[in-house]
Design brief:
- Keywords: Signal.
- With 114 residues, this protein is α+β, with helices and mostly antiparallel strands.
- The protein contains four helices and six strands.
- The protein has one domain.
- It has a three-stranded antiparallel sheet.
- The N terminus is likely disordered.
Length: 114
Amino acid sequence: MHFYYLLALFPLAAVAQTEVNGQCAGVASGFYQQDGICITISECDSYHGSYINNGCPGTADDVKCCVIGHALGTNPCGGDSACVWTFDSVCSDAGGHFETGYCPGGSDYECCIV
């Protein structure tokens, strides 16, 4: 009986853990969830990105969910561009192509130019 009472007070909830240079989770939504990357605040600032708190659970306090490009007034690789995950179809769906060397992270996070 006590066990069920404790479950009611403290439900078991899985919180997605993230890693540096990984995709955002936690409270991230919209562009942050789709295209955000977990990097340090200073790295996000160096790419003229915008970040939110609590989008990278399980990482250090200075690691935030960062979005680079989109409607932020920055175009990391010129034209109408943004850093996005290469495994997502958002770039090809928009008729764009990838340019390397303009975004943080690994080869699975590149600049999409439309």
